[in-house]
Write a structure and sequence with these properties.
heterodimer; A: 351 residues; mainly alpha; 2 domains; B: 433 residues; alpha/beta; D-Maltodextrin-Binding Protein, domain 2; five-stranded mixed β-sheet; SBP (chain B); signal (chain B); Extracellular solute-binding protein (chain B); Bact_solute-bd_prot1 (chain B)
């Protein structure tokens, strides 16, 4: 290979260059005909050179093309994913108020964070709201998917309509729910008044505010998860249900002993996705609190996302916000690893 | 093989586009700030809340007088959102408007830390205006080096606005002069609140929010969160603690409607009559008219603060970022907007009290039918004359915000005032270092 390339390099002259150009433009059909009558030496050199050049280009292309195909993602990821990620670490090691200079302070932001009671409050609220929303959300989705898996009239309509809350914007949904949970003339309090329950100050109560936010989240995501479950259920063989039915299993028993085991990977997927979503909960509590990043007067619904936003965009303390962002990222990684570990452990124990 | 080539080309093109996009991302586009070829200049103006220029038709008038100028105006409802967006634009070096408003709570931060980002107005046509201001108003916008970074639009002489119908219904005086003689101290105000509460129509509280009451009580002080030397004194200043205790008591006793200020519920409270009195900087006049609507006309009135002391809450500045491409034209516009005539027009339209001394006499006779014909020009003029010269610091806004939050926790979450105060101390210590 190396001697061919050196010969090609040595044979380079204006003459051969032009002939190469002309044959190249003539197309690949000329290849066989040139072998019938031996061409002049100079052309033959060009011919050999042409073939090897093509071969090399072809080899290069075969090797490089896959990288070229996947590169758009990685380039965009590098620009909008990796760079911000690394830059966030860099910023988190600085005292950086938006509009002024950055000063290196090492790990002070993290020290500040881990000694800040508001950070632990935000972690706890993120967890409680996460549980309050994820658990009912997934259970409801499972039930809905199970019902929709049976043949019924206008099934497609119901299936499609489940996705509509998900298609609604967070802002619109939250503003509507804010009105529903209003203290003075809210719909929720109006319903409660039928049962003789006095007006509830949803926004200012500790648990009531969290429940209200969890309801918004549940409303938005239940249909989405139900569709995923439905897709998972479709992959379970119908024969299993028929066999179970012949054996006299009720629908509930079918659900427990056929659907649930078959759906396990799907369920774990939705748990991971919902956990990540719950950790990043931001828009709902922000809008529920009328755009205040405090998350209520006693921070009763200040999630970690709101806490980060408050540091960054209310106090303009980007260094501190970056530290929160990184800790959140690590928490999510740990949660995902934890989930995966549970999956492994479950599958192993079943074998 | 012949399929591969175009595919590679497409891939290569995609990469180029991707790279091009990232490279172009930070470029400023000229269309936003540029001049049109016909010699017309587009000036962008960004404000927050209600400045009254649009409402009083001043932008239209300016454009009619200056055919070569087109004004593009936008306003953000909440100042904190406005400020965050502005800081991002300043930090990135592009996107800020030719004229930007700055709230009084931010001006010290600007004068102390952002001198390199804003134009010194003394060197422009607007510079002549500086002498027309009360010394303290412009001192706040002046840097150590003597550069003036903003011209005052208004000040916030503060009184108490109240619903005459609710006062009558509770058997309390509704005449401003009579009310003023009954209210000689803040304790009187609280005592009258207790009276109101016992006889008030259902659903009406004495005042809107503990945080609002707190703000107006401290607005009568000259030293609030910082002393003359710029030291933080908020947690040792007896005036702050007094205002806090007073507001916390009002909140605990159920004298407040527990409405967070500048929230939708608060807005609708003006029309519904959820509260009888509200701390009322002059700019609140326009706010009340906007939120209570025509139905509220003639139901409102305004009186002085207890004991006749002067208070000052709010007021803003107009400034030009150095990144503006039309600094000269922007300065001309600012000069015109801060002239006495224009400030008087704004006061008559939306109630923002002039900060230009030349305008004080122009508004002295202004009366307002919406406010039962109250002589708002004289009332707010007198308050402005006795208002203190306040010392501002760079974290005023943060401290004020967190105190409001602490008071809200007392009134809505039944946190003990002492506990809320302690939490407040921890929070601010943690945040301000």
């Amino acid at each position: 290979m190396s001697d061919v390339s050196s010969a090609a390099a040595a044979g380079a002259s204006p003459d051969t260059a032009s002939s190469t150009a002309s044959t190249a433009s003539g197309g690949s059909g000329e290849g066989p005909s040139s072998q019938d009558a031996p061409p002049p030496a100079s052309v033959r050199v060009g011919e050999r050179r042409r073939r090897t050049w093509r071969q090399r280009a072809f080899r290069f292309e075969a090797k490089a093309a896959p990288y070229a195909y996947v590169s758009p993602f990685f380039l965009i990821f590098a620009a909008f994913g990796l760079f911000p990620l690394v830059n966030t670490v860099w910023i988190s090691l600085h005292e950086y108020k938006l509009g002024s200079e950055m000063t290196w302070i090492g790990l002070d932001n993290f020290r500040w964070l881990f000694s800040n009671p508001l950070f632990y409050n935000a972690l706890w609220k993120t967890f409680t709201i996460g549980v309050l929303s994820t658990v009912p959300q997934l259970l409801l989705a499972l039930a809905l998917a199970h019902l929709l898996n049976y043949s019924m009239r206008v099934r497609t309509f119901f299936r499609v309509s489940m996705i509509t809350p998900y298609a609604t914007s967070v802002a619109a949904a939250t503003l509507v729910f804010s009105e529903l949970f209003a203290r003075d003339a809210g719909f929720a309090n109006w319903i409660l008044s039928w049962f003789g329950v006095g007006p509830v100050d949803w926004r200012n109560g500790n648990w009531t505010a969290q429940v209200a936010i969890a309801i918004i989240v549940t409303w938005r995501w239940t249909g989405y998860n139900a569709l995923i479950y439905l897709a998972g259920m479709q992959s379970i063989s119908q024969d299993l249900y028929e066999a179970a039915a012949i054996d006299g299993a009720s629908r509930w028993q079918q659900f427990r002993h056929v659907t649930l085991p078959g759906l396990r990977p799907t369920i774990l997927f939705t748990i991971v996705v919902s956990t990540i979503g719950a950790t990043q909960l931001f828009g709902e509590p922000l809008l529920f609190g009328n755009g205040s990043a405090d998350g209520g007067a006693v921070h009763q619904y200040q999630t970690i996302g709101l806490f980060m936003y408050q540091q960054g965009w209310q106090y303009l303390q980007l260094g501190k916000a970056a530290a929160v962002a990184w800790v959140t990222f690590l928490i999510i990684v740990v949660l995902v690893l934890f989930n995966t570990a549970i999956v492994r452990w479950r599958t192993r124990s079943e074998r | 093989m012949h399929l591969r080539r175009p595919a590679t080309a497409v891939a290569a093109a995609t990469i180029c586009v991707a790279l091009g996009l990232t490279a172009c991302g930070s470029d400023s586009d000229d269309s936003a700030t540029g001049s049109t070829p016909g010699g017309k200049t587009t000036l962008t103006v960004s404000l927050f809340g209600t400045f009254g220029y649009k409402e009083a038709g001043l932008f239209d008038k300016y454009q009619a007088d200056h055919p070569e100028i087109t004004i593009k105006y936008d306003s953000t409802e909440q100042e904190k959102n406005y400020w965050t967006a502005l800081q991002t634009k300043l930090a990135s070096g592009s996107g800020a408007s030719d004229v930007q408003a700055i709230e009084v709570g931010r001006i010290t931060d600007v004068a102390q830390n952002q001198g390199d980002k804003w134009l010194d107005l003394k060197g422009t046509s607007a510079g002549a205006q500086v002498a027309s201001y009360p010394a303290w108003k412009e001192a706040a916008a002046t840097t150590k080096d003597g550069a003036v970074l903003g011209l005052g639009t208004d000040i916030g002489p503060t009184g108490i606005c109240y619903r005459t119908d609710l006062m009558k219904a509770a058997g309390l005086p509704s005449d401003p002069a009579e009310l003023a003689t009954k209210l000689t101290s803040w304790d009187d105000y609280i005592a009258m609140g207790e009276q109101f509460k016992s006889k008030a129509p259902k659903g009406a509280a004495w005042t809107d929010a503990a945080g609002g009451l707190y703000n107006v009580v401290v607005s009568t002080e000259s030293k609030i969160y910082y002393d003359e030397s710029g030291q933080l004194i908020w947690n040792t200043n007896p005036a702050v603690k007094h205002a806090y205790d007073l507001a916390a008591k009002a909140g605990q006793d159920g004298l407040t409607a527990k409405l967070g200020q500048f929230t939708p519920e608060w807005d609708s409270g003006f029309g519904k009559g959820s509260f009888a009195t509200i701390a009322c900087p002059s700019w609140m006049i326009g706010y009340i008219k906007g939120k209570a609507g025509d139905a509220g006309s003639g139901k409102w009135n305004v009186t002085t603060l207890p004991g006749g002391v002067g208070g000052n809450w709010g007021g803003a500045y107009l400034s030009i970022p150095k990144q503006s491409k039309h600094q000269k034209q922007a300065a001309d516009l600012i000069k015109w907007l801060t002239d006495p005539e224009q400030q008087a027009t704004v006061f008559n339209k939306v109630g923002n009290f002039p900060s230009n001394k030349g305008a004080f006499t122009l508004v002295a006779d202004t009366k307002d039918d919406y406010f039962s014909g109250a002589a708002i020009g004289k009332v707010f003029g007198d308050i402005a004359a006795s208002a203190p010269t306040q010392i501002h610091g760079k974290d005023d806004g943060t401290i004020q915000n967190q105190i409001s939050t602490a008071l809200q926790s007392v009134e809505t979450n039944h946190v003990a005032p002492d506990k809320a105060w302690a939490t407040l101390n921890d929070t601010l210590k943690n945040q301000l270092g």
